[in-house]
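I am still learning, so would you mind making up any protein sequence you like and the tokens describing how it folds?
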Amino acid sequence: MVHILIVDDQKPIRDGLQAMLRQFPQQPEAIHCAASGAEALELLQAHPIQLVITDIRMPEMDGLELMARTRAEGRQLEYLIISGYGEFGYAQQAIGLGAKGYLLKPVKRDDLQTALARVMQELQTRMSLSRSMEQLSARARETERKELRMYMQGASYDTAWIEQTERRQPALWRDYRLCLLRAALRVNQPTTGGAGSIAALAERVYGREGCLCLQQRPGLVLAVRADAPPAALAAALREAGIEATVAVTVARGGLTALPESYAEATELHRHSYLLPERPCIGPDDIRHLERQWQLPYEELYALFQSIGSAADGAIVQGLSRLFRKETLQRYDIRYTEQLCRATVEMLEEYARVILPYMGEDSLELDALRSLYDYPGIRDYLQALQTQLLRLNQFYIAFKCSYRNSQDLKEAIRYIHEHYHKPLDLAMVSNHVSLNYAYFSNLFKKNVGKGFAEYLRDVRLDKARRLLAETDRKIVEIAAMVGYESYKSFTRAFRDAMAMQPTEYRQAMRQPGARAPKSSGSSRPSGF
């Protein structure tokens, strides 16, 4: 929409022109009025004015001087001039300065409407052309970024393209680093400011010509000038309240080094999972890591051999020993990747055995394929722990169904069906018509744990899933899984899990989770 400025030292003429303009079909967005050329200059500074209707003869600064001043300042304005019969020479000068037309006093309504329609059409055509040029320019920039991204990731381009691309930003490509960001929350989420706002922040740190966004997803990749401190972006993000780890490569020169820089940035990004406390990670931070190792298969086998016969707490402790923080940070990230892969493969083998007996339940192992689908290693280990604990529960029920008598099978079924009601050993033994003491010993011998502990584990397993998957109040969940009071439920949950139900829910609601989370009897140690 167009802003119009009326300049005339006589108020009746200003008011008359304004009244006529408001009667025309093509309405401007705003009409401003000035009594002198000096006042007009102030309004031009304050408003996005495109058209000026000005009298030629005014005291102090006349219309011609106003036109000359704005032209010298490089302002893109259109002018319609108002002149009397004896001022034709002035009108000619105004036309020479670029005026689109002149109107004789007194200004007639039809003349003003015709002149205004012509200028408005020119303005709309120019604005439409400007928008088209901006869109073409934006598409060209996006095409260039896409080509750079493909080249960065290994695509082949000829020497002419490389040289032409370097010439567009010679200062940047002469000496640059790559920055790859891993945000605590994904950088494309509004809570982290988004990839666009982080790139804008980087422009403030390095300057418009010293920063180029090459990729927004899956990780934000920036090429930045190398003369700035490597930790400059991380410091700016921290000051802006954005929690992120920035992987920063060594300085390189020339576009031909871009694929090598990207490979290094990706490697640093993967290693940042081992060093979550560091906001900025560079080559010196991983140089000391050992590149040779042997996976702890004995500990891995011991962990899975306890499946179906160990309490949840023992499973959690075994997993924590397997993924000990000090050990993971001793080796290259490939050690952690291989250990994760070996653990998931074992999970798959054990799950295949029991799959026919799971019914509608199943383990959610696809979410464990990649460590890097999670915000951090701790989130991954919580997801892994969840599936191990579920597998343990499945195996306990599975072994009972094959080792125990029909009465014991019925008791297990009865517990799983009535866990949410008041339930004790006497009620279950009566249900299967067995002596109280005999049933107690039989249950513990075959199940591997006492009745009270087993009932607690069943109830807490249901509670963990309700906490992770629903928004029900904790007092409601306590009643749903068979606890008579909120207090007794939270005490049992804390004793078994080493955290309050509210803490567990908060941990499981972190972005990046692919499956319902459960931390078992305690959290994984270290991370």
User: Anything to note?
Assistant: The beta strands are 3-7, 30-34, 51-55, 78-83, 101-104, 176-183, 211-215, 220-225, 244-248, 280-281.
